[in-house]
Design brief:
286 residues, TIM Barrel, 8-stranded parallel beta barrel, 12 helices, 40% helix
């Protein structure tokens, strides 16, 4: 299935000099990018080699996602992934990374029991090399976000389709379609921002809702199957390289098509997000 190819003219230079000239990404720099309107490029990574290529290609943030349970381990969902596995892959990515901001996913069962458990789990990922941790859900998670940020642990929140809750959500389907669901999501987004979250992933929600949330919050939003109006975009690496088995989600573009190498595909993705040619409204959004 063809999802299109990135514009060659927009592809940034691939020289080692341009990679080494970039300064390591920081939370302050991410906030500056958000304030100036520069799109933030995020991509999942699970090992040192791909992390190095992604960072050299100009990816701003590397998400060590619990999606590794599906694309690396071959499991049916992210639910079985353990904290120990996340720490291992975070260490691998941190070793290969040169300039990107590394975000480690807190896996299912590692932060739901208590605030103390969440702090201990987040500490494990930070010590493994993460610069920030990500957790899913709204409402009760605001207290967890506040506890973590008060202790100097930056947090990326995640609303919309939250894969750890796939069984209660009834599958991988669009969230926030009704007025009541949209209002709840907006309330949760505001609560997470107020609690100290520095970033918010919005997954598989209507484009109009994602745009509204982006407009109302002082923090950057990162879309995946959301809106082109989000502050940035994230894709699962295996999806954007076209190596995921089965039908790719509508919100994915296969950036390996027409690219001579994996790093070239990464550069194409970076360029397309930065110049706002990806995602395309209506083609990659809902």
């Amino acid at each position: 299935m063809v999802y299109g190819t990135p514009a060659a003219a927009a592809t940034p230079p691939s020289s080692a000099a341009s990679a080494t000239a970039r300064k390591p990404m920081s939370l302050h720099r991410l906030r500056e990018m958000h304030a100036s309107g520069e799109k933030i490029v995020m991509l999942t990574a699970y090992d040192a080699s791909f992390a190095r290529h992604a960072a050299d290609a100009g990816v701003d943030c590397l998400l060590v996602g619990d999606s590794l349970g599906m694309v690396v381990q071959g499991k049916a969902s992210t639910v079985p992934v353990t904290l120990e596995q996340m720490a291992y892959h975070t260490e691998c990515v941190a070793r290969g990374n040169s300039t990107a901001w590394v975000i480690g996913d807190l896996p299912y069962g590692s932060y739901q029991q208590s605030t103390a458990q969440a702090i201990a789990s987040a500490t494990t990922l930070m010590q493994a090399g993460a610069h920030m941790v990500k957790l899913e859900g709204g409402g009760w998670t605001a207290a967890v976000v506040q506890a973590l940020t008060e202790r100097g642990i930056p947090v990326c929140a995640h609303l919309g389709l939250t894969p750890q809750s796939v069984h209660s959500l009834g599958g991988y389907r669009i969230q926030g379609k009704s007025e009541a669901q949209a209002n709840t999501l907006k309330a949760h987004a505001q609560g997470l921002s107020d609690a100290g979250a520095s970033m918010l992933v919005l997954e598989l929600i209507p484009a109009t809702l994602a745009a509204e949330v982006t407009e109302m919050l002082p923090i950057p939003t990162i879309g995946i199957g959301a809106s082109a109006e989000c502050s940035g975009q994230v894709l699962v690496m295996h999806d954007m390289l076209g190596v995921t088995r089965g039908k790719l989600p509508r919100f994915v573009r296969n950036f390996s098509l027409g690219s001579e190498s994996i790093e070239a595909a990464f550069r194409g993705y970076v360029a397309a997000v930065k110049d706002k040619s990806f995602p395309v409204l209506g083609e990659h959004t809902y």
